[in-house]
Design a protein that fits this description.
mainly alpha; two-stranded antiparallel sheet; 8 helices; 138 residues
C-alpha cells in the first residue's frame, strides 16, 4: 500500500481507519465471499448478520460443495448463537455434510419468544437499575 502512504494493509487499518488489522482482514474476507454469495451480501448489508457471524460463514460458503446450501446457511446463522454457528460449520466442514442442521424445536421456540420473555420480566416484582436488580416496593 505504499502508493497511498502506508506500508501495509495492517498499517492502513490501524492508522487511517482506527481498526484492528484482524478485523480489517475479516471484513475483506467477508467482502470477497459476499461477491460470490448474494444471500450473504444481502444479510450482511441489511444488518441481519453481524461481521462475526458473516466471518464465521466464509470458509463454508466458499466451499464449492456447499454452493446449493448457501441461502440455508445464512438463514441458520440468523437464528443461532455465534458459538452454535461455529460448531455447526466446523462439523459440516469436518464431515463433508453441507446442509445445515435444523435448529431444535426448543431453540426455535426460544428465539421466537424473546419478545414474550421481555413482557414476562416486566411483570416480576423487581427491576434492574444500572445492571443491579432491586425489589420493587409497594
Amino acid at each position: 500500500m505504499p502508493a497511498i502512504g502506508y506500508s501495509s494493509l495492517d498499517a492502513y487499518a490501524e492508522e487511517r481507519l482506527g481498526m484492528a488489522p484482524s478485523r480489517a482482514r475479516a471484513l475483506l474476507r467477508i467482502a470477497r465471499a459476499a461477491s460470490e454469495c448474494p444471500p450473504l451480501r444481502k444479510a450482511f448489508a441489511t444488518g441481519r448478520l453481524s461481521w462475526v457471524q458473516a466471518h464465521a460463514l466464509v470458509p463454508l460458503l466458499l466451499e464449492p460443495a456447499s454452493a446449493r446450501h448457501r441461502r440455508a446457511w445464512v438463514r441458520h446463522a440468523e437464528r443461532v448463537s455465534v458459538r452454535r454457528l461455529s460448531d455447526d460449520i466446523e462439523s459440516a466442514l469436518g464431515h463433508g455434510r453441507f446442509a445445515p442442521l435444523c435448529p431444535s424445536p426448543a431453540l426455535a421456540r426460544r428465539t421466537a419468544s424473546r419478545g414474550a420473555i421481555d413482557s414476562i420480566l416486566r411483570g416480576l416484582p423487581f427491576r434492574a437499575a444500572n445492571g443491579v436488580a432491586s425489589r420493587v416496593s409497594d
